[in-house]
């Protein structure tokens, strides 16, 4: 057996975590031969609920779980963490403006960035799930000057997975047949799910679907899927978000052949300027991700990529004073 790795998860008593933690404990993220130490963070008011989650984890008697730490202190929860999944965030309250939401979360993620900087493993891999995920990741990264900015990522894998299924269903194929689908930009309604370079079962996707379906059905369906789930379920995506978080971390840590979407620091690729965390096509190998270069960008795609970049720049401006 390998030595255990430490996995910090924030918002441990929330609904995503109720699926996420148990799947990680079962080995879905890092494999059936990788023991884990779970380090769960919550706010003080939710510690009793978190304790209930810990009781249930204990009752599962998971062979891979070596220890469980539950704390309301980020310095404790992030201590020596090899992986940090930042799920907890402040939801939008009644009468709260978008700017208030950004600010409330900026305060949380700047403090958590500092705690990661001071206490986590130097190789920690950070995934931000809590919204606004891209900008929260940027804030955490800016407050962690001793860590590499590339260690901070945000989740667009749920959008990617949603798009895979929409396209597979429309073409009568399986998600495994879909290659080179890309989510560009922000995890928000401005994201751009792009199938211009995508193949389904080896054939160009745009030859298999109507242009009208692509522009007026597929793109808005993927962009608005979170709202559609809330309408249907009466609660926001939880198990699917947890599954996407596991996909993101597993591929980053263990590698994968497919092109997947991850929100990572922009480095000038595809003309997206540095200073924001933007979703790109990536390949993962040997514990690292790399933005896949060389996809052609037509005028339609460029406009959509620019719109979501603009939104991320606006979010960044709103929290500029907290960027460390
Ligand atoms: P819940 O409200 O069920 O759980 C959030 C938990 O975080 C709560 O238990 C709360 O006490 C805790 N929390 C709040 N502030 C904290 C802090 N400073 N430190 C530690 N814990 C803290 O939300 P849930 O449905 O689990 O969703 C969590 C976040 O994921 C939300 O921001 C949500 O918007 C976001 N999502 C992101 C997605 C993505 O694709 N990136 C998709 C799913 C989801 O909507």
From TrEMBL:
Belongs to the LDH/MDH superfamily. MDH type 2 family. SUPFAM superfamilies: LDH C-terminal domain-like, NAD(P)-binding Rossmann-fold domains. Residues 5-142 form the Lactate/malate dehydrogenase N-terminal domain. Residues 156-319 form the Lactate/malate dehydrogenase C-terminal domain. The keyword Ribonucleoprotein does not apply. The lineage of its organism: Bacteria, Pseudomonadati, Pseudomonadota, Gammaproteobacteria, Oceanospirillales. CDD domains: MDH_chloroplast-like (cd01338). Substrate binds at residues 92, 98, 131, 162. It catalyses: (S)-malate + NAD(+) = oxaloacetate + NADH + H(+). NAD(+) binds at residues 11-17, 105, 112, 129-131. Its EC number is 1.1.1.37. InterPro entries: L-lactate/malate_DH, Lactate/malate_DH_C, Lactate/malate_DH_N, Lactate_DH/Glyco_Ohase_4_C, Malate_DH_AS, Malate_DH_type2, NAD(P)-bd_dom_sf. This is Malate dehydrogenase. Catalyzes the reversible oxidation of malate to oxaloacetate. It comes from the Bacteria. The active site is at residue 187. PROSITE patterns: MDH. It holds the Pfam family Ldh_1_C. Keywords: NAD, Oxidoreductase, Tricarboxylic acid cycle. The keyword NAD applies. NCBIfam families: MalateDH-SF1, PRK05442.1. It is an enzyme of class 1 (oxidoreductase).
